[in-house]
Specification:
The protein has 371 residues and is mostly helical. 73% of the residues lie in helices and 0% in strands. It contains 16 helices and no strands. The two termini are 20 Å apart.
Length: 371
């Protein structure tokens, strides 16, 4: 009886600490939901608290605090997000010329949405826009698969962030497909209609860095809370989402102003792809470090490879254009097929993480029912 009373007092003390911490302005509402589990029956006594619940409380007490959401703490995240965005943008504009100087010099000509007949090339064949639409269908199906496994306070946050990444990809290829299908002359290419479509096409790829980074942040948060989390993963910071929002918005704004516009509009996509370097490596580090009984080695490998698989396209495009006899339609079809594989691998690995969280919650519920 004495030991049971001590156990109840310890549990109540930890619960009180979690509730009082949530009352502090340094925590957002979503974090409070995680620190005080929704399944806790506040109206009941705590003498029947399960061992798994105690483990949750122990983890919350020992885990590092989340980044503050107060204005004073948001400012460093916003500032660092802006600095990172313009830093990676400068790197993206330089990198193609480092990889293949001669081919890039003959391929990447700045346009700022003003296209020259002697330099601008844009394919209007069905091979390009049909594969765009196929890509959109594949991405939409991936979004559906992820969202149907959304469970409140368990996987819903990761579902929304993962689905937003794939939805941005979907919107991008729809806009690209419409542009390739209906913008058939140089005059139309210099119109506001094309500019709008291409800003949507390229801007969503730029903004996808935000969704990708937030997916990584949420994955880190969720799996750091899991039992037997690896020590290495515990050291990986869950970057403040204000950083990712600022990062994505800055890149999309530069795109809208023509900062990454080239005479070959396809080049815009490759520059936008390079800007995903930081968020891609963040996801890769997570998949390398995560260790969980419900996350298979195969899924970890798929995630690790899927988020870097687009990298070979960066030197490949100018080389294919300048040093092969392939038509633009053939080049675009090849690249779209490559994108389909890479993006599908990203979607599969993120969906696997979601299902792991749901399966872990189901196992906890089943364990409680069997007691």
């Amino acid at each position: 009886m004495y030991e049971q009373n001590n156990k109840e007092k310890h549990t109540m003390a930890v619960l009180s600490e979690s509730v009082s911490t949530c009352a502090d302005s340094t925590y957002d509402s979503d974090e409070c939901e995680r620190r005080v589990p929704a399944r806790m029956p506040l109206s009941a006594g705590y003498s029947n608290l399960s061992d798994s619940d105690e483990e949750d409380f122990k983890y919350e007490k020992s885990s590092p605090k989340m980044l503050s959401s107060s204005p004073s703490s948001l400012f460093p995240s916003v500032l660092s997000g802006a600095v990172a965005a313009f830093g990676i943008l400068a790197f993206s504009l330089w990198f193609p010329f480092f990889l293949a100087p001669q081919a890039a010099g003959r391929t990447y000509h700045r346009a700022f949405y003003q296209y020259d007949a002697s330099k601008s090339h844009f394919d209007n064949t069905a091979w390009t826009y049909v594969t765009d639409y196929i890509l959109a269908i594949v991405m939409a199906k991936s979004v559906y698969n992820i969202m149907k496994d959304s469970r409140k306070n368990i996987s819903d946050r990761l579902c929304r962030r993962s689905a937003s990444l794939l939805m941005l990809y979907c919107i991008s290829v729809i806009a690209g497909g419409l542009a390739h299908q209906f913008i058939t002359t140089l005059e139309l290419r210099n119109s506001l209609y094309f500019r709008f479509l291409w800003i949507v096409c390229v801007g969503t790829v730029s903004a996808a860095s935000c969704s990708m980074g937030m997916s990584g942040t949420e994955a880190v948060r969720q799996f750091q809370k899991q039992p037997n989390c690896s020590k290495m993963l515990l050291q990986l910071p869950a970057l403040n989402e204000a950083f990712w929002w600022t990062f994505g918005i800055c890149l999309a704004a530069v795109c809208a102003m023509g900062g990454i516009s080239y005479q070959r509009p396809a080049c815009d996509i490759f520059i936008a792809g390079i800007t995903q370097t930081i968020s891609s490596f963040y996801m890769m580090i997570f998949f390398f470090l995560v260790e969980h009984k419900r996350v298979t080695k195969f899924a970890r490998s798929v995630g690790f490879v899927g988020f870097i698989l687009n990298a070979p396209l960066l030197p490949m495009y100018p080389l294919l254009v300048q040093y092969t006899n392939l038509t633009l339609a053939s080049v675009n079809t090849l690249l779209h097929c490559w994108l389909c594989v890479a993006w599908s691998m990203q979607g599969y690995s993120l969906h696997h993480l979601v299902k792991a969280l749901v399966a872990e919650d189901d196992a906890k519920i089943q364990s409680k029912k069997s007691i």
